[in-house]
Amino acid sequence: MSCSASRVIDVPALVEQIRAGRPRGVARGISLIEQGHHAARDVLAGLTERNGHAHVVGLTGPPGVGKSTTTNAIVRELRSRGRVVGVLAVDPSSPFSGGALLGDRIRMEEHATDAGVFLRSMASRGHLGGVAAATTQAVRVMEAAGCDVVLIETVGVGQSEVEVAALADTTVVLLAPGLGDGIQAAKAGILEIGDVFVVNKADRDGADNTVRDLRHMIQMSDRSEPGLWRPPVLKATALSSDGLEAVVDAVADHRIWLERTGALAERRRDRTRAEVLALALAAMADELEHDHARLDAAVSSVVEGSADASSAAADLVERFRRAREGSP
Amino acid sequence: MSCSASRVIDVPALVEQIRAGRPRGVARGISLIEQGHHAARDVLAGLTERNGHAHVVGLTGPPGVGKSTTTNAIVRELRSRGRVVGVLAVDPSSPFSGGALLGDRIRMEEHATDAGVFLRSMASRGHLGGVAAATTQAVRVMEAAGCDVVLIETVGVGQSEVEVAALADTTVVLLAPGLGDGIQAAKAGILEIGDVFVVNKADRDGADNTVRDLRHMIQMSDRSEPGLWRPPVLKATALSSDGLEAVVDAVADHRIWLERTGALAERRRDRTRAEVLALALAAMADELEHDHARLDAAVSSVVEGSADASSAAADLVERFRRAREGSP
């Protein structure tokens, strides 16, 4: 997977820009990751000792609950506490790029000129290593740029969104009254991943019912076992920032709990494990897919019935082992 | 990835059972695939020359459009034409297994004692090679058992569901009036994959509008270019089987079109390519994940900051090449 275009990128200068917290450097670094550019690896290698201090916060929930408004309000609250904040808006499962996110970004204009806020949308379907690895790497760039908190906002509630949200140290699950409520949350699997639940649009009818339902579902689940973090269920109205102080407090409390119990180191180790595995597999996939002659022969043998798919796959793996790669 | 338990499975007998169209043999074969059991490979190897004749039909659509009722009605119509039918109900993205599908299966009881119908739910998250490879393999088993048509019914409309539906030769997209209609379809990416569109619950208000919207969207899209298959938009009421004859006719017409244009061979080649790649990568992932010592060392180097994730991944790949596997 060598890339001759990498020569035009001045890696040490880019690393320096990122470490100095320059927004353009951060944007460029994340673009390289998104493109699966070879230079991304060198840039990330230059940032390792700056990694590991930021609090990574995932934010997810069904469409229509006000995710971007809430992200905006959380950023505002964090800024009032003097924290440097990164925001990654990730749409892992949409087959289309951009559209909806662009609209959301307009609402973030409030922070666009604030040097203490880094914003970035990622449309990274097809990225080498998958959206999870790309997101983890983008977090590393924001961390190195000096972010104290990195918010990962996912769009949608599919399994991939849940997986991305679960990359965080702390996951905030947003719900709103009248969206199917608790049962929808359970179906989407977000009841399992939330560390802090926020019922947004709390001024609407039914907010108290949604809070009660959620608390009840948490009580009934194995999340109420002693020794575990008991996820709080909070009410908020992101549009007016009502209740956002308590949300940011709960997120900070969870971080303290993670550190005290050793769960933080464990979560980060798991995340790194998944990242390294994804990158290794992506490199393997890249090599397999690009050796067209070998792959076509394997496919033909199955199509013509002279081999079954598993044997053809085993043969591909064996040939992969025997192949010697050139310089990376 | 050897599995000592494979000794207790009499592969030749199981292959014989499947080829004889015995329901228990088919169920057992698909279970082995679902479990990622080593014997599945040998079973599939025994079925290769029976592969390739069945018409693989995907059925997808948003929740609430009546997918299982429609599947049921399609099966009834196909049976009245003397076709042997397999039904695979796949839920690729739910983090939970079983539940909803069980309810659906009860409605299939009509066909439960019919020797010409094979039913199977797959809850194959985490399956080696992914849900797509598992589904393709389960189709091979049903084909070998003598199915003329294999219906793949997906639950939900996430990206994974779209991918599974796209494994088929012919994809039927179900919609219903008042479910957000065309715009929802476009968002979910199902406008691109449907070969036959069916507006179910046609007796409801708004059915004609939904049909008109869909036809309009197809007309506006690049699917209307000359030489391409022009997806029909049909009305049906699956509960009373109204309109199902026309649906099954359209599905059969699409198959004829696929054969005439050579697109069938191309689709099947693409499917096989994806399957072989997925299986090869799964075998690699399996080996990487199970070499705990090597993986833990790589993860530690990243966590401790002595390596970046990409370098650690590259090192894992290099060690994979150098490792010699024992007998499979």
From TrEMBL, chains A, B:
Query: Which InterPro entries does this chain map to?
Result: AAA+_ATPase, GTPase/Isobutyryl-CoA_mutase, GTPase_ArgK, P-loop_NTPase
Residue intervals of the AAA+ ATPase domain: 53-262
What's this protein's family per the entry? Belongs to the SIMIBI class G3E GTPase family. ArgK/MeaB subfamily.
Cite the Gene3D superfamilies for this sequence.
P-loop containing nucleotide triphosphate hydrolases
| Pfam families in alphabetical order | MeaB (PF03308)
Per the UniProt record, the source organism is: Phycicoccus elongatus Lp2
The molecule here is called Putative enzyme
Q: What class of enzyme is it?
A: hydrolase
